[in-house]
Amino acid sequence: MVVLITSDDERIVVEDDIAKRSGLIRDLLAAPWDPKDGDREYMGIELPIVSSDVLKKILEYCEHHKEEPFDDTYESEDMFADIDEWDLNFITADPHMAFEIVLAANYLEIPPLVSLGSKAVANMMRGKDAEEICDMFNIEKDFEP
Amino acid sequence: MQPHCSSCRCLGETTSISASSPLNLDGRGIPEAIRLLDARIDVLVAELCDLRRQRNAHIPVNRMPPEILQNIFLLYRNDFSTAALDWTAVSHVCLRWREVALSNSSLWDSPDLRFPEWAEEMIKRARGTPLHVQYSRPPPTMNTSD
């Protein structure tokens, strides 16, 4: 088991196989560990930019995909061409959370989840012009093209 | 002759005047008064844009690293199959989006030759990236003279 410590100091215990969906955690667990530094499981892995609510969502995704081979591809051509229904429901359930998930998944190095989140954001922008995109994301026009 | 600021039309003396205090334009001719007011507007607009940029930096979508934003822009572009130039809206949203869009040469690799001026600009922005060009042969016209 692996203990993950979130930015809001919550300690979340996770199975190795699920935690290792993250490239960052995989690398940290593979790194040499000096027992003089303490018990590894007890010490846990600090994730200073991931809050507990976002991490729980990400672990939900990792649990769902734990049997699948690792995918290191970030790029994708089509918006929703190859997204299964579970993933679609997962990422579109809460648009605000989608941003947080993409940021955290990028930090944790989970390429398929970054790609999924990117598709969700692109889909929010679908068919919208610059002004509508500004309104939707609460962006102020800050330059004259 | 009063000195000009090199980066805009303002006079050095106007930059320290706050927005709420009216300029003292007594004794100046109309063109000079307009020039001073324009200069002050320029300074305030630049300041406003700067504040908006600082504000926009805190918006969740703008916390995304540039490589992710670039991928989002590509997905958005690829979704436009017919309206050839509409996807360029991403470069008009805010300064950060514009900088991210312009820094990604592959975003501009599909110039639409139906719009020659834009095509030329897009080829420049593609900066040597291999281009994708589509050509549709017009349908044959019926010869009715025989």
TrEMBL record, chain A:
User: What InterPro entries does this protein's entry cite?
Assistant: SKP1 (IPR016897), SKP1-like (IPR001232), SKP1-like_dim_sf (IPR036296), SKP1/BTB/POZ_sf (IPR011333), Skp1_comp_dimer (IPR016072), Skp1_comp_POZ (IPR016073)
PANTHER family reported in the protein's UniProt record: SKP1 (PTHR11165)
Entry's Gene Ontology molecular function annotations: ligase activity
Q: What is the lineage of its organism?
A: Eukaryota, Fungi, Dikarya, Basidiomycota, Agaricomycotina
Could you tell me the keywords of this UniProt record?
Ligase, Ubl conjugation pathway
All copies of domain SKP1 component POZ, residue ranges: 1-66
Gene3D superfamilies from the entry? Potassium Channel Kv1.1, Chain A (3.30.710.10)
Q: Where is the SKP1 component dimerisation domain?
A: 112-145
**Pfam families for the chain:** Skp1, Skp1_POZ
Q: Which SUPFAM superfamilies match?
A: POZ domain, Skp1 dimerisation domain-like
- Record organism: Punctularia strigosozonata (strain HHB-11173) (White-rot fungus)
The family classification in the record reads: Belongs to the SKP1 family.
Q: Name one GO biological process term.
A: ubiquitin-dependent protein catabolic process
Descriptive protein name: E3 ubiquitin ligase SCF complex Skp subunit
TrEMBL record, chain B:
Q: State the Pfam families in the record.
A: F-box-like
Q: Which residue numbers delimit the F-box domain?
A: 62-113
What is the name of the protein in this document?
Answer: F-box domain-containing protein
